[in-house]
Amino acid sequence: MKDDGLPIVSPPFEGDDDSETGVDSDPGVAGVLLAAGTSSRFGDENKLLATIGGEPVVRRAARTLVDAGLDPVIVVVGHEADHVRDAVSDLPVTIAVNDAYEAGQSTSVRAGIGALSDTGDRDIDAAVVALGDMPFVDPQTVETLVAAYEADAGDALAAAFEGERGNPVLFDRRFFGRLVAVDGDRGGRAILLESGASALVAVDDPGVRRDVDRPGDLGGKR
Questions:
Q1: What's the whole-number mean pLDDT along residues 119-136?
Q2: What residues contact 108, with CB distance under 8 A and at least 6 apart?
Q3: Cα three-residue angle 116-117-121, rounded to 5 degrees
Q4: C-alpha dihedral over 41, 43, 46, 52, to 10 degrees?
Q5: DSSP assignment of 49-106
Q6: Closest C-alpha to 48, from 84, 98, 100
Q7: CATH 3.90.550.10 at 27-210, yes or no
Q8: pLDDT for the residue numbered 2
Q9: Among 122, 121, 207, which residue's Cα sits nearest to residue 162?
Q10: pTM score
Q11: Range with the largest mean pLDDT of 32-46, 141-155, 177-191
Q12: What are the residue ranges spanned by the domains of the chain?
């Protein structure tokens, strides 16, 4: 089965020990969480600060990347930046501020990928780009994306549930230049769909297709 013409690969991957203890330090994979949007469809409240089980949506999304062992993890803030920053202040993440967030998601991708160059001399081979309004993604899904990358399944990989493309998406560093050059609200989707090295990674995680746009999307757990 295919989505958008992309092949679907499934774990276990060759060389994958099926470990659930986090990703290896080789290759070096960073996390970029896009959390700068205005929550226009959610109402007066910032959806990233709404809570699920007492935890802010954005913190839960950031914690997924941390728990998966990604390092560094960049959280891109914009709208109500100080409040979003406070929501993740106890996590081992680096904040990148996107003052141009109203111009579309691509500006947050640019800020997040750009911030990776400011994280010191550690080698970063790829980045997992995730969305701050998708708090239901399982950390093991992120680990599976990295395992697929390690096994050379592709250089641009998106999580997929029941054959349908979702988020997050992993990009090899060779795409970083193109990611900072995109504009509007496209993010990295065009790169994923146009690259000959792209694939979907099958995961048993409906969270990759579940975002928070309206209060009802929180599932009643606040």
A1: 87
A2: 34, 35, 36, 37, 76, 78, 98, 101
A3: 105
A4: -90
A5: GSEETTEEHHHHHHHHHHHTT-SSEEEEEBTBHHHHHHHTTTSS-EEEE-TTGGG-HH
A6: 84
A7: yes
A8: 47
A9: 207
A10: 0.90
A11: 141-155
A12: 27-210
